[in-house]
């Protein structure tokens, strides 16, 4: 664990060359644009390959030619603004002085080219403190082809940029209306590294069965994660000269069971991926070309009644760091987190929520005392865990407008973004947050 | 006393003819070759997971607003789902690009007009008596 001391030294060296980093970030932004352009071309190409033969078939059969693609076209979107105030620590911006830097907006379109073929895409704008600056990103763009659809089963495949179907919330994690609160349970759905598990550029196959005992569905796929600097900050502790990139395609899977009236849901979902650090060769100090292997999985349970919804999820994430050089020795650890949450619909337009969650950076050192001792307090014990109590209320003014209020009390700072709070010793162990959110949808 | 007679009468009637007049009716475009569907099929259709009728006609689903009492009763009695569960499914599909939402209409009158005018359309009303252009679909 002594490497972490060295890590702090490395961080100091880095901050002294801050100007250099700014230039590098600018360069990287440019690089990312090229990558997304490349990915976009793959996606568009994929859509053309998919839609080509089916359009031809549409012209040749009578029933399909009646089908109106224009009529099937749908546009939806949302816009939301939050206000966050914390007693201490920066959370989605300068929250100790009240932050308005949490804004989400999206616009999506979808069309059924044929009953079997859906194409869709969404552009997302998201400002989240220092983590995301609000520049637009392609959230998803996909073609969904159903091979077979009967009363007993459904089989199909999706290609393009696809939201990863993890847990109860990942697919629509940026849509305020679909979240249980203003913030998702952070110990399972980290906002500081959301992009690692957000979506994949690739293919996913799905198989659903509809039986008397309920619905069982399986999704299996592969692709490349859509990564950013937040991932590097969280998994390497700093933004070293160079880029942390996906080394090989990731594997995604989800198995889900839902009782016939969807009152009881349970599932397992996860991904395995490897990231490799591509060092900047001209830099005075950086890491070697090491790898980080992650296996992230979630077990989910949900029980739905007319007035109550009880949800619980457990996340486990074994991580292995290898070959980063002498300043960053090899290491294995397992992060974990779980929560239990109750939602009570006091009125069709008014909902109350309460949640308890716990998350640990290292399941072998839950209270963080070992690393605190080994690093002489440079890494504080309380930065290695988070125990959070949250209470919130939601009011749906009408079908389009929603307001929310939320309070959370935190013991520990594990969920904080190291990008927003780079110096562990400056973080406060006990803190609380009050937030409000106003959202519009159509 | 008169009121009690009326109430007793209503109770007897509602026991003899369970839910008649109070129940919601599933309606479809008159051109459809289907007259009854199972509850599972109804759920698949209203959660937008079944895109075609047995004769390959594309399905067009119409619903009323989430808080409309006709919608609430239809979801709970006919589909045995709560309105928030339907909304959750539609939102997940719409905002992950893996499906679509049904078309929301403002009133029961508009529901009947749109179902009557759209081939393959499916919807619901409070009572399907004397409706032109639409047919009643039974749920078994």
Structure explained in plain terms:
The complex is a heterodimer of chains A (about 450) and B (about 140). By secondary structure, chain A is of the alpha+beta class. In chain A, about 20% of the residues lie in helices and about 50% in strands. Chain A has seven helices and 18 strands. Chain A has helices spanning about 5-15, 20-60, 60-65, 70, 195-200, 230-235, 370-375; strands at about 75-85, 100-115, 115-130, 130-135, 135-150, 155-165, 200-210, 215-225, 240-245, 250-260, 265-280, 290-305, 310-320, 330-345, 350-360, 385-395, 400-410, 430-440. In chain A, strands 1-2-3-5-6-7-8-10-11-12-13-14-15-16-17-18 form a 16-stranded antiparallel beta barrel. In chain A, strand 10 (about 250-260) and strand 11 form a beta hairpin. The longest helix of chain A has about 45 residues, at about 20-60. Chain A is globular, with a radius of gyration of 23 Å. Mean pLDDT of chain A is about 85; it is low at about 1-40 and about 45-65. Chain B has one domain: Periplasmic binding protein-like II (D-Maltodextrin-Binding Protein, domain 2, 3-Layer(aba) Sandwich), CATH 3.40.190. Helices cover about 40% and strands about 15% of the residues of chain B. Chain B has helices at about 1-15, 40-45, 70-80, 85-95, 110-115; strands at about 25-30, 35, 60-65, 105, 120-125, 135-140. Chain B has a six-stranded mixed beta sheet. The longest helix of chain B is centred in the first third of the chain and has 15 residues, at about 1-15. The termini of chain B are far apart. In chain B, about 35% of the residues are buried. Mean pLDDT of chain B is about 85; it is low at about 15-20. The chains are: A alpha+beta (about 450), B alpha/beta (about 140). The interface of A and B includes residues 63, 141, 151, 158 and 162 of A.
């Amino acid at each position: 664990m002594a490497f972490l001391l060295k890590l702090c030294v490395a961080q100091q060296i880095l901050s002294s060359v801050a100007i250099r980093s700014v230039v590098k970030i600018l360069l990287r932004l440019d690089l990312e644009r090229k990558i997304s352009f490349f990915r976009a071309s793959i996606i568009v190409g994929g859509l053309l390959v998919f839609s080509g033969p089916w359009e031809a078939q549409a012209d040749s059969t009578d029933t399909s030619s009646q089908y109106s693609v224009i009529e099937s076209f749908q546009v939806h979107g949302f816009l939301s603004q939050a206000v966050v105030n914390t007693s201490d620590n920066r959370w989605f911006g300068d929250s100790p002085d009240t932050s308005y830097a949490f804004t989400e907006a999206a616009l999506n379109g979808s069309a059924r080219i044929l009953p079997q073929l859906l194409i869709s895409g969404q552009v997302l704008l998201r400002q989240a403190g220092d983590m995301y600056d609000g520049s637009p990103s392609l959230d998803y763009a996909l073609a969904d082809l159903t091979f077979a659809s009967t009363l007993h089963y459904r089989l199909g495949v999706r290609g393009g940029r696809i939201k990863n179907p993890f847990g109860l919330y990942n697919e629509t994690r940026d849509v305020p209306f679909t979240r249980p609160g203003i913030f998702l349970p952070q110990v399972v759905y980290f906002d500081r590294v959301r992009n690692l598990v957000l979506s994949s550029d690739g293919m996913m196959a799905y198989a659903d069965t509809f039986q008397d005992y309920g619905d069982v569905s399986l999704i299996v796929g592969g692709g490349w994660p859509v990564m950013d600097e937040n991932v590097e900050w969280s998994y390497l502790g700093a933004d070293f000269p160079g880029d942390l990139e996906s080394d090989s395609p990731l594997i995604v899977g989800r198995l889900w069971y839902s009782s016939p009236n969807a009152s009881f849901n349970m599932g397992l979902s996860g991904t395995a991926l490897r990231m490799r650090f591509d060092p900047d060769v001209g830099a005075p100090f950086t890491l070697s070309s090491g790898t980080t292997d992650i296996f992230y999985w979630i077990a989910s349970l949900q029980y739905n009644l007319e007035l109550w919804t009880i949800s619980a999820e457990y996340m486990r994430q074994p991580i292995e760091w290898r070959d980063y050089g002498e300043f960053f020795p090899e290491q294995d650890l397992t992060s974990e987190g779980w929560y239990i949450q109750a939602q009570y619909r006091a009125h069709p337009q008014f909902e109350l929520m309460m949640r308890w969650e716990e998350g640990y950076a290292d399941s072998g050192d839950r209270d963080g005392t070992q690393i605190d001792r080994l690093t002489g307090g440079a890494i504080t014990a309380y930065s290695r865990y988070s125990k959070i109590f949250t209470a919130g209320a939601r009011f749906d003014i009408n079908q389009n407008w929603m307001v929310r209020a939320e309070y959370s009390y935190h013991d520990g700072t594990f969920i904080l973004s190291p990008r927003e709070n780079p110096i562990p010793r400056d973080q406060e162990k006990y803190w609380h947050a009050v937030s409000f959110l106003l959202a519009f949808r159509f | 006393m008169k009121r009690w007679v009326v109430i007793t009468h209503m109770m007897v009637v509602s026991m003899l003819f369970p839910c008649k007049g109070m129940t919601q009716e599933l309606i479809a475009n008159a051109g459809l070759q289907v007259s009854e569907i199972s509850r599972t099929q109804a759920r698949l259709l209203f959660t937008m997971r079944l895109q075609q009728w047995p004769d390959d006609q594309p399905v067009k689903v119409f619903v009323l607003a989430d808080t409309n009492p006709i919608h609430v009763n239809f979801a709970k009695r006919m589909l045995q789902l709560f309105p928030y569960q339907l909304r959750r499914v539609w939102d997940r599909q719409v905002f992950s690009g893996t499906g679509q939402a049904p078309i929301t209409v403002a009133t029961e009158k508009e529901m009947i007009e749109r179902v009557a005018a759209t081939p393959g359309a499916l919807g619901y009303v409070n009572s399907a008596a004397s409706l032109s252009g639409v047919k009643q679909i039974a749920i078994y």
